[in-house]
Amino acid sequence: MRNAAEHERRERERRRRTLSVGGREFDVQSGDFTELTVELQRALDNDAVPGLSSGRAIFTRLQPMKPASRTPETDRRRGRRYGGAPDAGLSPAQREALGYMGEWYAYHWLRGRYSVGMDETSWVSSNRRKAFPGPSGDDGLGFDFKVGSGKRPMMFEVKATRGDGGQIELGESEVRAAQQHAGNERWRLLVVTSVLDPERVDIHMLPNPFGKQGRGRYREEGGALRFSYRL
Fold it and tell me: In what residue span(s) does the Protein NO VEIN C-terminal domain sit (predicted)?
């Protein structure tokens, strides 16, 4: 009994510190993603990530969404449905790795679509340091990539998920940036889906929820920081 309980405990710990990417397991607890990055690059070099090579830099069409009915009971049901956050149940280390992978894929997607004004310095979040030397990045900007120089750059906030998407959460700095640029559509979302399976990875560019193109395409779910959408 004691050995079985110890085995189960170790197995739970293993599941919370590892991620399976393309059928290979990686320990992400330490925050060192060197081996993970090598695997992502290997898949890219072998043309095993078709989602990065297909499509143009245009907004993915979203279906109209009716506003949510707001009563205490519907808010409680909505909270139970979504478990409080997308990809609920992940450990902090797994969330960090998932976010990094999403930004890594987004970096290469953006490089393939913006030949001018897009290089490694465009990656402005702290995840950049996991792939490139140099400045540590700033997670308080409200976006992960800044593409183009001059007074009117485009800003991209990346959201990664293990599944097919359908819900996003915005942090306070992201909401501020999105609201600040609601009138010019220069703040955009890149949703990276199926991030753990290189062959199924896809990237959707979505409009600002607070902007004209996003109006009526998102539904607030339990507060202004959480939105649902339908591709």
Answer: 139-197
**Predicted TM-score of the model (pTM):** 0.90
Beta bridge partners, 25, equal 20
Residues 217, 63: Cα–Cα separation, whole Å: 6
d(CA 210, CA 174): 11
* pLDDT reported for residue 54: 73
Sequence letter at residue 15: R
Amino acid found at 140 = G
Distance CA 26, CA 35 (A): 8
Q: Which residues pair with 220 in a beta bridge?
A: 227
Residue pLDDT, tens place only, 64-79: 998 876 555 555 554 4
CA distances to 53, 89, 219 from 45, in Å:
12, 32, 38
Q: Residue type for 11, please?
A: E
